[in-house]
Specification:
CATH architecture: Up-down Bundle
Structural class: mainly alpha
CATH superfamily: Cytochrome Bc1 Complex, Chain C
Helix content: 55-70%
Strand content: under 5%
Distance between the termini: 56 Å
Strand order of the largest sheet: 1-2
Oligomer: single chain
Number of strands: 2
Order of helices and strands: HEHHHHHHHHHEHHHHH
Largest sheet: 2 strands, antiparallel
CATH class: Mainly Alpha
Bound molecules: protoporphyrin IX containing FE
CATH topology: Cytochrome Bc1 Complex, Chain C
């Protein structure tokens, strides 16, 4: 049989240390599974969604309340999107806390940061597509932040919204970004990222002489574990989609309104909290971009983990990087909670 991409990701055997659940937390694989769920459910939603400001929210209501299984599919899509962000963040923490970002994995780490940004943008554009009264304030605030950027702000705003008042004109732009402009790069980068894991020597593990046992796992055992993880995540998703419907407010039709709930979606609550402190450009653009740049620069700025410690939890040699990422995580969570 000719080797395929599947065989590239699943060699005949791999060191058991690389496949341990307690080592990877299964987060990268879970992200791929959630991405697949999102693509399938998203395509199904497209059969009913109408990207036109007068009809968008009504088409979501039709899908949710009148189409057989429509509400369930929408709930699956919503929960897979929220979980993808959670799982991707857990994955980032595990990569930093096991020192798995250092050479030769620095490029793949950067691709991971790009995937995290794409996930955030997909979650935000998807949230706007609901087009109910609650999305107007976050849409206006988010797109107005673009305008504050010196020199290119007006141009970026036009790209994002089409140039008019955001709550009137931005829907078609956000739809196109969501379906093509962000999803396609996400798929391409996701495949490339998974491909690079093997090209970089497989999941980071201590060198063979430092491994407690030289056990290797056959391919079918790896596939069995992946299958089991997918079944468990699938069950969790089905339970969430059955008992916790995706939010949906009153339709935003006619004259756009800003009287909806003036709250950012949960993943931008920390930015909303900072915006209360003053200058929108400083707190809403510069600081979030600086946090992103800091995360991206981790493999280049701070002392790398010692080779013998790569692939172990909390290596002593890269404590600074762990501290920085841990601190960013705590600050983001605290700001989000303060803003509740
Ligand atoms: C949609 C987002 C993502 C997907 C689908 C994804 C997928 C994967 C998969 C399947 C693996 C191998 C299994 C595992 O380590 O769990 C992996 C490893 C890796 N990922 Fe990601 N990832 C994503 C986001 C990220 C992020 C946000 C980062 C960090 C900024 C990152 C950095 C890495 C690195 C450095 C490795 C190699 C780890 C090692 O060798 O131990 N990834 N990713």
């Amino acid at each position: 049989m000719r080797p395929s991409f599947f065989h590239h990701l699943h060699p005949p055997t791999i060191p058991a240390a690389q496949a341990r659940w307690r080592h990877t937390l299964g987060a990268g694989g879970a992200a791929i599974f959630l991405l697949l769920v999102l693509i399938v459910t998203g395509i199904l939603e497209m059969f009913y969604y109408i990207p036109n400001p007068a009809e968008a929210a009504l088409s979501v209501q039709t899908l949710t309340f009148h189409v057989p299984l429509g509400g369930f599919i929408r709930n699956l899509h919503y929960w897979a999107a929220q979980l993808l962000l959670v799982v991707t963040t857990i994955h980032l923490f595990r990569v930093v806390f096991t020192g798995a970002y250092s050479a030769p994995r620095r490029f793949n780490y950067l691709m991971g940061v790009a995937l995290l940004v794409l996930t955030l943008m997909l979650d935000f554009t998807g949230y706007i597509l609901r087009w109910d009264v609650d999305i107007c304030w976050p849409l206006v605030t988010g797109t107005n932040l673009l305008k504050t950027i010196p020199g290119i702000g007006a141009w970026l705003y036009r790209i994002a919204t089409g140039g008019g008042a955001a709550c009137s004109t931005a829907l078609l732009r956000f739809y196109t970004w969501h379906i093509f402009g962000l999803t396609l790069p996400m798929i391409v980068l996701g495949i490339w990222h998974a491909f690079r894991v093997r090209r970089d020597g497989g999941i980071a593990a201590p060198p063979p002489s430092f491994r407690p046992e030289p056990v290797r796992l056959p391919r079918n055992e790896l596939v069995r574990r992946e299958g089991l993880a997918m079944i468990l995540i699938g069950i969790g998703l089905i339970l969430l989609a059955t008992f916790f419907p995706a939010p949906l407010g009153a339709a935003m039709t006619g004259t756009p309104t800003l009287t909806g709930e003036a709250r950012a979606p949960w993943f931008f609550l920390w930015v909303q909290q900072m915006l209360k402190w003053g200058d929108p450009f400083a707190w809403g653009v510069v600081v979030p971009l600086a946090v992103l740049a800091l995360l991206a620069a981790i493999p280049y700025l701070f002392p790398p983990p010692a080779e013998t410690e790569i692939g172990q939890w909390f290596p002593k040699s890269n404590r600074v990087a762990q501290g920085v990422v841990g601190l960013v995580g705590v600050v983001v969570v605290v700001l989000s909670l303060v803003n509740r």
